Structures are given as structure tokens and as C-alpha cells.
């Protein structure tokens, strides 16, 4: 701790000294410094986990919060409030069902197919408390693709929401053939091959499970599998380690969020934005979140006023839908201060401000499986992130020339890529290293290798190919330009 604090102070002093002259003519100086200090502070905490092999995971943080602030509202869903203690106990109950039956053991991977509802979170946490890893299945994935997901992450157990069981009717026999056991969140089921969970949860104890079961010794251990769907081919299972989930959970906090915030989550929990940044971020701050079954443009502002929402999560389309709603009286009357998400177009961004007031829109760039993240902590319209000299020391990324016609990066005579000049558009590559590892996709070395670029600037180096064309302007703002190839968020 001592060591890292000294390092932080030293670095801050360095930042200060180097910029002291520039600062008068550099409007973002203090915001940059505050942001950077936060990034470094959080990074130092993760370094300590590495050194001591004692990882405080998101679930550990949740259990800590449930002890510290048991009666604080953690989750609001369809008008019902669940405290930290409520969710903690219910996730214990779920874990105890499997513990008593002995059907799951530490290290098993379990697939979860549920729409947004409180039990999504209770099942997720309960399984992690057993030491299992959890695969979030996209509820739009059907039959054959769904079976493929089980092969990717090696799951032999599926937990399915009560409202989704019927959609599985046609593949229940295939599950049986592959000896995958199916558990439904129901009291009773007409399918003989499906086991029921709710009735068993009613009988089970809510006492805490042994902490040793969920203990993690490495930041690089997989805790979740999140599927990224492509425009072609089968879904890919991105391996989410504790490292990534801890980084994502720091998002709101890095943007200045606190325990007093109320976070609105209208995105599906099976994506990383809602689960890792939204739920994880709420836990990290000890705040409250409002979960929506589905986004509704007509309910959005009423919800925000009713629950005193201060932060909301978005994707570009959400803001566009909100702008397309008919104008109403008092649209600027709400407590929302910040939106966190990605894909907000400049014109929508401006219109959103005009209609709903000066809400700070915080673009967050980073793919589920990627090893790089940008944050636009200034809130400048049109930028996905912001860089500077020190950020580049922490995160090694490069923009390289890209040939749009041949659809590949430009290589010189020696076969190496070339940096673009400031302001020019290039393909964003992120260096893979011990501090920025890439964990790839579960069950497919080939897919993992496809996202890598080797021998980029020197022989033997390796970069994560984001597939995104970006430009960095004279003020160090990073702007998204285009997406190339078969790459997805
Ligand atoms: C399941 O059964 C329990 C107890 O018998 C009851 O309290 C609960 O409401 C039932 N749940 C559903 C979804 O039917």
C-alpha cells in the first residue's frame, strides 16, 4: 500500500510539474489529472491483488456491502425495492439448493437464460458463491446456436427463467442427449426432463455459503462467459475474468459517481454493459439501481422522476428513441446528471442536450472481450475517449494506416504497420501484455487468433485488433469513425 501510494504521489507530482506551464492554456488539465489519479489508484488496488493472490471480486464486494449497508436499497424492479440484504439472502438460498443436492461443484460452468428480473442477479451471484462460472445466454439465441453456446463454455447445467421455458420446447430432447440438466425458475413444470427451482428455494436456507467456495486466487480466472453475437456465424463466448469485471465496475466511480447515485439500467443483463458496468458499478459505489425488464421510451422520464435517477445507461439508439418521443411539458425537470454508454451520434447528442438539459454524456469505449478502454471524462460531444501522454504510458494502443479498398492494414516493405498522423483515421490496435491481457474466446483458439495481429511494429509483438477505425484530434480526443471487417462489439 505504502509503495503504491508513493508511486501515485510521485506520478501526480510529475504530471503537475510537466504541465505547470501548459495549464493556463489547457482547459482540461484538472479534469485530466483527477481522472488519471483515479485510474492509477484503482490500478494500484488491482496490482495489490496480484501481489497478494487475494482477489476481492465483485461478489466479495457485494457481500461486504450487504454487511455494511444491509437495509440500503440495492435494486428497484417494477416498483418493488430489494435491499442489499434481500439480494444477498436470496442468492444464498439459490446456492444452498445446489449445495444440499451436491449437483454443482466449484469450477463448474453454468448457463443462465433469463430476461431482466431480480432473480437474474440472484442466480448469477448464487452460482458465483458456489465457485461456479456463469455463461449469460442471449435470450434471442435460438435452437442450434443455443446448443453451440454450451459447447463453448462446457456448461452441463442450464437455469432458465419461467417465461423462457416454453421457447426451449424444441431443443429439450437435445439437452437430454447431451446430458445437460435444465432447471426452471418455477414451482412446477409439465416437462418431465425439467427440474424446478422455486419450490426448492422455498425449502432451502438463506444462510451464507462457505466463503472458501467463492474465493478467487487469480485475477485471470474466468468468472463469466458473455456472448457477442456477430452478423455472421455462431455467437462467440468472450471469457470474462475477475480483472475485466473489476475494471468495468469502476466505470461510474471513475466518472464521479457515488453512493448517493441511482442508476437506471434499461439494457439486457446478458450483455456486459448492464451486468458488469451497471450492476457491478452499483455495487462498487454502494448505490441503488433501477432495473427495467425492457427499455421503454415512453416510460423513461417518468421512471427517472419517480425513482430520482441520477445516472442512466444507454446505447446510441436509446437516446435517439428518446429524442423521437413527442415533446412534453417540463422535459428538463429531472435529476439525471449523467449518461454512460456508447454509440451516441453527434447530432443526437446535441438534440438530447437541447431537449433534456445539460446531462453529461459519458461515452465509454471498449468491447466485451477487448483489453483496452477509453472514457470521455470531459464529455466533449462526438468523442469516445480522451488520451494524453500519461494515459499512453498506461495503455499501449496505436492507430495504424488502413487500406479501405483491400480491407486490411497497410504493411510496408518489411511487413510492418505504420502509425497514422495526428488527426488521420486509422485502425485501432491494442498491445497485448501482462498488464493488458486478452483472454480470448472460450472453446475456440481459432477465433481468438483471428482477433490478434502479430508482427505489427516489430517481429513477435501481438496486438488486439479492435476492428474500429478511429482518429485522434489535436486536443487528444479520440473519435470513432467506422467499423471494418467481421468485428463486433
Ligand atoms: C411458488 O410456491 C410458493 C409456496 O408454495 C408461493 O409462495 C409462490 O408464490 C409460488 N410462486 C409462483 C411463481 O407460483
From TrEMBL:
It catalyses: a very long-chain fatty acid + ATP + CoA = a very long-chain fatty acyl-CoA + AMP + diphosphate; tetracosanoate + ATP + CoA = tetracosanoyl-CoA + AMP + diphosphate. Keywords: Ligase, Lipid metabolism, Membrane, Nucleotide-binding, Transmembrane, Transmembrane helix, Transport. The keyword Transcription regulation does not apply. GO terms for cellular component: endoplasmic reticulum membrane; plasma membrane. Residues 63-384 form the AMP-dependent synthetase/ligase domain. One of its GO terms (molecular function) is nucleotide binding. The keyword Kinase does not apply. It holds the Pfam family AMP-binding. GO terms for biological process: long-chain fatty acid import into cell. Belongs to the ATP-dependent AMP-binding enzyme family. PANTHER family: LONG-CHAIN FATTY ACID TRANSPORT PROTEIN, LONG-CHAIN FATTY ACID TRANSPORT PROTEIN 6. This is Long-chain-fatty-acid--CoA ligase. It comes from Hucho hucho (huchen).
